[in-house]
Write a structure and sequence with these properties.
By secondary structure, the protein is of the alpha+beta class. It is 34% helix and 30% strand. It has five helices and five strands; from the N terminus they run H-H-E-H-H-E-H-E-E-E. It has helices spanning 2-20, 24-30, 44-50, 57-66, 83-86; strands spanning 40-42, 70-72, 95-105, 109-121, 124-134. The chain has a five-stranded antiparallel sheet. Strand 3 (95-105) and strand 4 (109-121) form a beta hairpin. It is globular and about 60 Å long.
């Protein structure tokens, strides 16, 4: 019985550390209605409070990293290019940065993801969008 209580206590402590260790951006998004299935919750207005239009690429990358995001400047999938994401949405964009944040259930299983796409022209952010989705098995 004591071992069970100890395990439960450790779990609760880890949950608290995880929650209080999150950035304000991630906390604000986490407070939204959780997406279900293939639903994408638009988070553009929230993201644009933290990543300002006109910011340099270096500022954006540093900000995303400080908010706990994994920052990708090139696709890890051969043959897929991030610039394809912006086709028809930001034709004047010449560069893109993608930020990914994964919420994990019990620190192991991906539960939800945040994806932020930022398009640049002349090293300045001109297109900022984001989505909050459920990670499907």
């Amino acid at each position: 019985m004591k071992i069970l209580k100890l395990i439960l206590l450790v779990f609760v402590i880890f949950l608290a550390i995880d929650y209080f260790g999150r950035s304000p951006l991630v906390k604000e998004i986490d407070e939204l209605k959780k997406p279900i299935g293939f639903e994408v919750v638009n988070i553009d207005s929230i993201v644009q409070k933290y990543i300002l239009p006109g910011s340099s690429k270096e500022q954006v990358v540093n900000s995303l990293k400080s908010y706990g995001f994994e920052v990708l400047e090139e696709s890890p999938v051969p043959g897929f290019y991030f610039m394809d994401i912006l086709k028809g949405k930001c034709d004047q964009c010449s560069d893109i940065v993608v930020g990914i944040y994964t919420f994990k259930f019990l620190y192991i299983l991906p539960a939800y993801k945040i994806s932020i796409d930022i398009g640049f022209q002349d090293d300045h952010a001109i297109f900022i969008t984001g989505g909050y989705v459920q990670s499907l098995p």
